[in-house]
Specification:
- There is one protein chain.
- 13% of the residues lie in helices and 45% in strands.
- The radius of gyration is 23 Å and the shape is globular.
- The protein has an 8-stranded mixed sheet with strand order 16-17-18-20-1-23-22-21, with no helix packed on it.
- With 348 residues, it is mostly beta strands.
- The relative contact order is 0.15.
């Protein structure tokens, strides 16, 4: 009898443990939840390689046709620069007149301030789309470069876009239009506004096909959704968006902290971040009064010291089986030079 009771007790404990495990594996809806990736709430971003470019001024935008080429914009340069797979400067292509580039940099009052770049397909051909920050009227500029037709350049008429974005950002009297990031996938176009106010950094999202029709066929500007995000603060300054790239289900971004109170003048660089926003979380960021906290990791060297450069844009080349991401980042030293960083983003 004692042995029978012991056997029954053991069977009861096993059944109870199995039931508890099953409860833990179910969501509130009752469906079984299978974890395919870690929750990306903690991690770090360490620089593994740094390359200095003496003759590539003020890097501001980056795109990739990985593993073949990387394309770089300079915000005070008239050229599109192509780097090969080893990051060697291979070629440069003029986007517009080079007459104001005689000193190696376009003067601040004249530069179109091209800060944003992404690639898209149109009628089966590959393009780069780039546009200016919009912080002054001289910066209401946009170009489409056909990668399949010897870098044929088309200047775009974007007055409707800039007027709309300026109207939205001016709702806050302390805000000025200052586009710094652009990313595109098959579904959406993401335009990132770098904020200097307490409203938070702003993201405009358009439907991709309609937006391309606006760019390439002079169709009406499509409706936009507006989202608000909170980024880390360093000293008394809040970091601001500076670049973006869509990879799988995440919008990765760079952000930097600059000691300035306006969108035109440069300030002391205090640090930079690399972060992400899950695409499915955008619905949580619709209120300017409650901006969504975006996860961001400070850019650091392997010894733990902070990177003081101004990270301006990024691409993600790949992710390994441990969900570590290889990012390539470009930065601007405000002295007419640029740096490229290989960054390993470890997610815990």
């Amino acid at each position: 009898m004692t042995q029978l009771k012991t056997t029954f007790l053991l069977l009861f404990v096993v059944a109870l443990l199995a039931f508890s495990c099953q409860q833990g594996e179910h969501t509130a809806s009752g469906a079984t939840s299978v974890q395919t990736k870690p929750a990306m709430s903690r991690g770090n971003a360490f620089i593994e390689k740094k390359i200095f470019f003496e003759n590539l001024p003020s890097a501001s935008g980056l795109e990739s046709t990985f593993p073949d080429s990387y394309y770089v914009l300079g915000d005070d340069s008239p050229f599109l620069y192509r780097l090969d797979s080893s990051y060697t400067l291979a070629e440069q292509y003029p986007l517009f007149s080079t007459e104001n580039f005689t000193g190696g940099r376009i003067p601040k009052a004249l530069k179109p301030d091209l800060e944003c770049m992404a690639q898209f397909k149109y009628r089966g051909e590959n393009y780069l789309f780039m546009l200016g920050s919009g912080s002054t009227e001289a910066r209401y500029k946009g170009f489409a470069v056909n990668l399949d037709r010897q870098y044929e350049v088309t200047e775009l008429e974007l007055n409707t876009l800039y007027a709309f974005l300026k109207q939205v950002t001016s709702r806050n009297k302390n805000e000025q239009l200052n586009l710094e990031g652009l990313a595109m996938d098959n579904k959406h176009v993401y335009l990132l506004q770098r904020s200097l106010s307490s409203v938070g950094n702003v993201l405009f999202r358009f439907e991709t096909d309609s937006f391309i029709s606006y760019l390439m066929e002079s169709q009406a500007l499509p409706a936009a959704s507006v989202f608000y995000f909170s980024l880390p603060q360093l000293d008394q300054y809040t970091s601001g968006f500076s670049g973006a790239y869509v990879f799988h289900n995440y919008l990765f971004f760079t952000a930097s902290v600059e000691g300035t109170t306006n969108v035109v003048d440069d300030g002391e660089m205090l640090g930079s971040y690399l972060g992400y926003i899950e695409l499915e979380d955008f619905d949580l960021a619709t209120s300017p009064d409650k901006p969504l906290n975006a996860t961001a990791f400070p850019l650091k060297y392997k010894d733990g010291t902070s990177y003081k450069g101004k990270a301006e844009s990024l691409v993600i080349d790949y992710v390994d089986k441990q969900w570590n991401y290889k990012a390539v980042v470009v930065s601007d030293d405000d002295l007419g030079h640029s740096e490229l960083l290989e960054v390993l983003v470890k997610v815990k």
